[in-house]
Design goal:
about 20% strand, five-stranded antiparallel sheet, 2 domains, 17 helices, elongated, four-stranded antiparallel sheet, alpha+beta, about 45% helix, 16 strands, Immunoglobulin-like
Length: about 475
């Protein structure tokens, strides 16, 4: 009996398999690829980085063109100044971004991820640096398998040095959107060269954010890469909810490609009983997330289309038609739809609704920005003296008017008040307010005693620019008579 129990225990022990909680990362050595989609991808890399790195250095009206001045609570975007009261425009921008994401995903899958996502863009740049320093896929694999040597150390140090330099410049540019970048550059230059007293200094927060954003760029694009897309980005998880059978996705044509197998270039695949896939694994080798698209659509696929470019080159060398891997839809594969039919199905109700709502929001935001009056007025009653009698014949109320000139040119404003008989503004001299400035203006209103009954009366303040009557604001308040 004891022998049987011992034998059973040994069997259970041998059958036990340790399952790791987390999958061990396998290094991905992506192969360089060229083609139509690669050119589009690099075009967007150049465009996005030109905008990102170049915008802070542009000058508009004598100041930085794009500056988010958190201390002064003003956002400068070219010729427009946004104040905290303009929070609705930020909401509109976020709504436009979300609707655009929904629309593009419904039409053609993960276009954002494959071409414009910062993670994709910076990973592409870091991989380009890696290839230039260490070589293409096979060369990098051989280098990593070699023991440490002077050459290997020099190549690795050069690669990481360039990556760190790019990351720090990225962090510096990021901070330059919140601290004027010319001042920031002067402060960094002074820090490096031990400038004389009185020169701009680099604050602790600037140093922290330059290093933090640089570290995030270096860590995400230089080390984690596809791990961010596979495990950290939530978009990869809920993208399938935005797809439908008429969404354009990167797909392997299994009916045309199978059975796969290697063959000579002059082999007739029909006579050999083979499909067009030569099983070269180029689609796998060029994938930045290390998946095989021939296994079907996977959540790790970011839609970069590198596999399409790689496969098309192989098909061209073999003399086969391109498009074994291509952008197509599930319905197109099963129903053998033509490109015209695919395009017609793209204009389905879901897409039309997204498009209509998106354009409605864009037009609404555009119209409100165009018609936006560059003047904001807040009325605050003086609570220390709600109402008082002056010279035995006047009832006076005191107010504080916060006048915000949101344009970058100075204006002179006149203040008027209406709503009661004999209501007048005491010392009603025009108020000069500089460009993109705010000023608190004390205002005293008077009426003749006995002209209005005791109680609270509604009045209106009118503030108008003397040089442009279209710049006008009206705010309500109350006048107390005791």
């Amino acid at each position: 009996m004891s022998d049987n129990l011992e034998t059973a225990g040994q069997a259970r022990s041998e059958a036990t398999v340790d399952q790791p909680l987390y999958e061990v990362r396998k290094e991905i050595y992506s192969r360089a690829v060229s083609g139509w989609f690669a050119r589009w991808r690099w075009g967007l890399v150049f465009f996005t980085q030109l905008v990102y790195y170049g915008s802070p250095w542009m000058v508009w009206n004598g100041r930085q063109a794009v500056l988010f001045d958190l201390v002064a609570r003003k956002f400068y975007i070219f010729g427009i100044v946004f104040w905290p009261q303009d929070f609705i425009y930020l909401t509109g921008f976020l709504v436009i971004s979300a609707l655009s994401l929904f629309l593009f995903t419904a039409v053609a899958g993960r276009l954002w991820c494959g071409y414009a996502c910062p993670q994709t863009v910076y990973t592409e740049i870091f991989m380009w640096i890696e290839r230039k320093v260490e070589g293409d896929r096979v060369a990098r694999m051989r280098l990593d398998q070699q023991p440490m040597s002077v050459r290997k150390f020099a190549l690795k140090a050069c690669k990481h040095g360039l990556g760190i330099a790019l990351s720090l410049w990225t962090g510096f540019t990021f901070v330059g959107y919140f601290t004027p970048i010319h001042e920031l550059a002067a402060a960094v230059g002074g820090l490096v060269s031990q400038a004389t007293p009185g020169a701009p200094t680099l604050g602790a927060w600037e140093i922290f954010w330059v290093l933090f954003y640089g570290f995030a760029t270096y860590g995400n694009a230089g080390w984690m890469r596809e791990q961010v897309c596979k495990y950290m980005c939530p978009y990869a998880r809920f993208q399938s909810a935005m797809f439908d059978p008429d969404t354009l996705i990167i797909t392997y044509d299994r009916e045309r490609g199978e059975p796969r197998g290697p063959r000579a270039r002059n082999t007739d695949p029909k006579l050999a009983g083979l499909g067009h896939c030569v099983d070269c694994d180029v689609c796998y080798q060029v994938c930045p997330t290390g998946i095989d698209i021939r296994q079907g659509l996977q959540y790790e696929c970011i839609g970069c289309a590198a596999c399409i470019d790689g496969c098309n080159k192989v098909m061209a060398r073999m003399g086969y038609p391109k498009g074994l891997i291509r952008y197509t839809t599930e319905n197109a594969l099963t129903q053998k739809l033509t490109p015209r039919q695919i395009l017609a199905r793209a204009l389905r109700p879901r897409v039309l609704v997204y498009t209509a709502v998106l354009w409605a929001v864009i037009i609404a935001i555009g119209v409100t920005l165009y018609a936006r009056v560059p003047l904001k007025v807040d009325v605050i009653r003086d609570r220390a003296s709600l109402s008082r009698e002056v010279d035995g014949r006047w009832i006076e109320n005191i107010y504080q008017l916060q006048i915000m000139n949101t344009q970058e040119v100075p204006h002179r404003f006149s203040i008027r008040a209406t709503g009661l008989d004999s209501l007048q503004v005491e010392d009603a001299a025009p108020v000069e307010i500089g460009g993109a400035a705010t000023r608190m203006v004390p205002v005293r209103l008077r009426i003749e005693k006995g002209r209005s009954p005791v109680g609270s009366h509604q009045i209106e303040f009118d503030v108008v620019a003397d040089d442009n009557p279209a710049i006008f604001a009206r705010e309500r308040s109350i006048f107390l008579v005791r």
